Write a sequence for this structure.
């Protein structure tokens, strides 16, 4: 197909993003950055002394997937777990500011809100990270509350994304109920996976492991396109999902759809920070499918979005204008 026709088709899909509704279910997080200047090494230990300048707060994890969807123009509802602590309150305020639906968040007083505190220099060099979290899987009334919220919002969503970070929100029962609810409406369920939960994802539409996760799950080496394709087939059989998209960093992406395999070369012009790139990929992929694109066009959009976001620092987002510019430039 002529390049101009492909670009026009992708352009129309991006324009339809603003008429889509995406449900994100998973592990919500707060990202805190303590930013300072380093001029000396501590006399107490061989570590840099960071002179504090300012704090920054951003949404992370499943919250960052939701932020990416919203930044690209889609409507989004978020279902997940927080604590009832100060961090949880701050996270909710940030989500409200970004226009992300938070009525599906379940507060559990027995949990900490997952928070990643990064100490970074004013040159965007990370010195250390401190994690605050409660990562046991939800159970009992808490698990039921999350599942009930997910089932409610599936009724109005165009696509569902499960963002699994192994922080407790995603359980086997929750996945089964999401898949069943989505099947009644014939909408796609996409999963950004974690390998210990690989048996949870049976019946989902598309799973997006990175190449390290795919290697672990399949016990296969992935260095070439053919090896990626072979691993995708094994991964699909292992999970029971319909399609697999292996993200391979600077080597692009590998899509397995039925018997067809397609490789997408990386399009990044420069790499500053890969943090959150997987969130951007699955957000753009979900929006593409919700906007009526086929899976290959949706992967093309996701590939371009990833190429943009890795040029930014920290968990970042992409605008529709940036994505359209990248598509047209290619």
């Amino acid at each position: 197909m002529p390049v101009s026709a492909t670009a026009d088709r992708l352009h129309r899909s991006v324009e339809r993003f603003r008429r889509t509704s995406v449900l994100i279910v998973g592990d919500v997080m707060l990202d805190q950055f303590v930013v300072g200047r380093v001029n000396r090494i501590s006399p107490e230990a061989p570590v840099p002394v960071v002179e504090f300048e300012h704090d920054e707060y951003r949404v992370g994890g499943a919250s960052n997937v939701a932020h990416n969807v919203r930044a690209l123009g889609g409507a989004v509802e978020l279902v997940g777990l927080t604590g009832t602590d100060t961090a949880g309150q701050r996270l909710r305020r940030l989500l409200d500011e970004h226009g992300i639906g938070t009525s599906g968040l379940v507060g559990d007083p027995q949990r900490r809100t997952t928070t990643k505190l990064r100490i970074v220099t004013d040159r965007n060099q990370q010195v250390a990270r401190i994690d605050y979290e409660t990562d046991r899987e939800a159970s009992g009334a808490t698990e039921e509350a999350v599942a009930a919220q997910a089932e409610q919002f599936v009724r109005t969503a165009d696509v569902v994304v499960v963002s699994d970070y192994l922080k407790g929100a995603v359980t086997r029962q929750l996945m089964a109920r999401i898949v069943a609810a989505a099947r009644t409406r014939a909408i796609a369920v996409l999963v950004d996976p974690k390998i210990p939960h690989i048996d949870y994802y049976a019946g989902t539409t598309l799973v997006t492991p990175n190449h390290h996760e795919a290697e672990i799950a399949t016990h296969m080496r992935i260095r070439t396109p053919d090896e990626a394709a072979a691993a995708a087939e094994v991964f699909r059989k292992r999970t029971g999902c319909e399609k697999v998209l292996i993200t391979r960093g600077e080597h692009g992406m590998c899509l397995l759809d039925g018997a067809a395999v397609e490789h997408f070369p990386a399009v990044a012009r420069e790499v500053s920070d890969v943090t959150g790139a997987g969130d951007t990929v699955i957000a753009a992929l979900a929006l593409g499918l919700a906007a009526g694109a086929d899976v290959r066009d949706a992967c093309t959009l996701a590939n371009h979005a990833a190429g943009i976001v890795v040029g930014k620092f920290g968990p970042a987002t992409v605008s529709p204008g940036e994505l359209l510019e990248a598509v047209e430039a290619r």
Notes: The chain has a mean pLDDT of 93. The longest helix spans residues 140-154. The chain has one domain: 3-30+61-113+134-329. Residues 18 and 73 are 5 Å apart (CA to CA).
